[in-house]
């Protein structure tokens, strides 16, 4: 069976040559394998080194991504490019046990997907701190509880999948964040994943991907999968920004504008301040891959956002008062108005305010 090894990289120049040599050693005389390095245009020019290696050994391929970044999307791109009947994903920093690669590939004899597990008997997390162990186990428990997964390590970044199985579910993937395996396991369910234990090792070079942003991404991914994309990560971000706007509006009214203007003018100024705050946060976070950077785009974006927000406020008030007139309690009527206007604002802003092509994250 031909195997494709997918290595997503970013600033891994110090590791990638050693990784290729280690794979050559693991596969030995076997010739039916390839390495696909998916590099997000690393500043340390990892892609250049891989291209040099590929000029000597045609089994080494490099896909240098200039249009986007992100681990999950890099993995999906690599899996899509693989020509092997069996596809394996691992990091290039030697944290995944390269000696377990043959076992993971062999496990696909009886399964569509095989997971390298740190929590199966014989596995381990190496030199992790107590806090990181607790965080990892909490995320694992949450994903198993919410998504009803049976894998002992659904957060693993070390796994193998049959190519035909991946191609079957690929159109339904929504790669984001760092936990593509979790999404694959949901799409493959109710099939049982094979598991191969391994011990997680300290990274040899580079910088860990773990950050506060990764934790937020995990929460958003979990919500998306649990609601079957009814609540998307982008919409959740938009809703959070909207709630922050309420805080900004009241703070601006009582801490600033009420001291400078009469009540009517102060209220209008506070609403405008909150809307501008929402635009700035949405531009840098919710719609980050489409963010406005040029001054003219920012000015157009602000104007469009304010117009849409104004229409949304009118819709909110109209729906609320109509439902009250029908006899619905005011708090419930207001909640319905807020939901309806938020959906209106979100989709119009998605299609009009931030309608440009995606940019690198």
Note down, in words, how this protein is organized.
The chain has 361 residues and is α/β, with parallel strands linked by helices. It has 2 domains: 224 residues, Spore Coat Polysaccharide Biosynthesis Protein SpsA, Chain A; 121 residues. The chain is built from 12 helices and 7 strands. A 7-stranded mixed beta sheet has the order 3-2-1-4-6-5-7, sandwiched between helices. Helix 1 links the parallel strand 1 and strand 2. The longest helix is centred in the last third of the chain and has 31 residues. It is elongated, with a radius of gyration of 24 Å. The mean pLDDT is 88.
Strand content: 5-15%
- What is the CATH class designation of the largest domain? Alpha Beta
Mean pLDDT: 88
N-to-C terminal Cα separation, in Å?
A: 36 Å
Write the element-wise H/E pattern from the N-terminal end onward: EHEHEHEHEHEHHEHHHHH
Strand line-up across the major sheet: 3-2-1-4-6-5-7
Structural class: alpha/beta
In a nutshell, what does this entry contain?
This protein is an alpha/beta fold and 361 residues long. It has helices at residues 13-27, 46-56, 71-81, 101-107, 130-147, 163-169, 180-188, 212-226, 233-260, 263-286, 295-325, 330-353; strands spanning 3-9, 33-39, 60-64, 86-89, 113-117, 159-162, 194-197. The mean pLDDT is 88.
């Amino acid at each position: 069976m031909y195997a494709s090894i997918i290595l997503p990289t970013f600033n891994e120049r110090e590791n990638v040559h050693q990784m290729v040599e280690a794979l050559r050693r693991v596969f030995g005389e076997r010739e039916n394998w390839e390495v696909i390095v998916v590099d997000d245009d690393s500043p340390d020019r990892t892609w250049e080194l891989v291209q040099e290696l590929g000029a000597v050994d045609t089994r080494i391929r490099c896909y240098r991504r200039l249009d986007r970044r992100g681990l999950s999307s890099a993995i999906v791109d690599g899996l899509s490019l693989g020509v092997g009947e069996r596809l394996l994903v691992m990091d290039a920093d030697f944290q995944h046990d390269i000696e377990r690669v043959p076992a993971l590939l062999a496990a696909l004899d009886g399964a569509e997907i095989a997971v390298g597990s740190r929590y199966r008997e014989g596995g381990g997390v190496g030199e992790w701190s107590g806090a990181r162990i607790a965080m990892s186990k909490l995320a694992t428990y949450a994903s198993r509880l919410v998504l009803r997964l049976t894998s002992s390590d659904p957060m693993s970044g070390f796994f193998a999948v049959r190519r035909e199985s991946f191609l079957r579910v690929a159109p339904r993937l929504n790669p984001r964040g760092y936990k593509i395996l979790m999404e694959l396991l949901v799409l493959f369910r109710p099939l049982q994943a094979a598991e191969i234990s391994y011990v997680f090792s300290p990274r040899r070079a580079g910088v860990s991907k773990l950050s506060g942003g990764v934790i937020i991404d995990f929460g958003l991914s979990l919500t998306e999968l649990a609601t079957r994309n009814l609540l998307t990560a982008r919409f959740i971000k938009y809703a959070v920004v909207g709630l922050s706007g309420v805080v900004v509006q009241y703070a601006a009214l009582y801490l600033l504008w009420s001291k400078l203007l009469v009540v009517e003018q102060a209220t209008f100024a506070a609403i405008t301040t909150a809307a501008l705050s929402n635009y700035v946060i949405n531009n840098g976070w919710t719609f980050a891959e489409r963010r406005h950077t040029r001054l003219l785009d920012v000015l157009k974006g602000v104007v469009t956002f304010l117009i849409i927000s104004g229409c949304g406020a009118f819709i909110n008030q109209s729906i609320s008062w109509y439902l009250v007139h029908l006899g619905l309690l005011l708090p419930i009527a207001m909640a319905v108005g807020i939901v309806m206007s938020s959906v209106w604002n979100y989709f119009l802003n998605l299609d009009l305010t931030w309608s440009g092509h995606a940019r690198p994250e």
